[in-house]
Sequence to fold (269 residues):
Amino acid sequence: MRVETAGRRIRDYVVSADDGTLMRHAFHILLAAAVVFVIIDWRETSNASADLPVYDPMAPDAAPVLPPALTEGTPQNAPAEISTDPDELKKPIRFELQQGGVLLARGTIEPGAAARFQSEIDQRGEYVKVVSLDSPGGSVGDALAMSKLIRERKLGTEVATGALCASSCPIAMAGGVTRLAGKDAVIGVHQVFNGSKEKMTAERAMSEAQRTTADVTRQLDSLGIKPGLWQHAMETAPDRLYYLSADEMKEFALTTPVAVVPVAVKKGK
Fold:
């Protein structure tokens, strides 16, 4: 009897409700189901990989600095050889002012790197024109802060031939008003992840990942970077890299067109 009453009430509600109301309720049901399945999937993945090592570029013994790439689903090597000593890339990022107003930023973007970068720019800002990046990435929050400061100071960014800009480093690179990549520069992206060993609940992990993704997406969008760049990052596991080709960098507006110098200027006229 109760089953029949419940069924009658559902039938009466469906008949009386308008299409908009039904669509909204259907959407809410699907959204709730999606959240449940994501949490279940996260917990199963966490339990399955609990005993596996976590790739953490911040760890002193992390090796290699450069994980294999994921291009079209197949792990591959970097598209060019990196000339920087891997031990140098593992060190906390250092800043060195070079000729022509180029500030070399080499090493891992560790927590607190943005504050040191701010101090460096405050001291030498009038001389700095371009930030030359050579980094395996690291702290996303610090890379975001560096990106914002680079744009605020109207600086250019570059990744020189033989240099590396991976993981969170392209976020910092995106801040440049001009953005250049050398012929054999190695630039790669992957998913945001928490490199620490701290245990987190599924809800907190999802919350942090969503917030970080929103922050990065908002920053890249404000800088004119096309969505395809971040889509490739989100599709690539954190222990892999999606290496960007020169054409993709142009397509996603990660690199900007090189200004053409007039012939008269070249000849000194």
User: Anything to note?
Assistant: The chain has two domains: 2-48, 69-196+209-251. Strands lie at 69-71, 74-76, 94-98, 102-106, 130-134, 156-159, 164-166, 179-181, 186-189, 242-243. The radius of gyration is 24 Å.
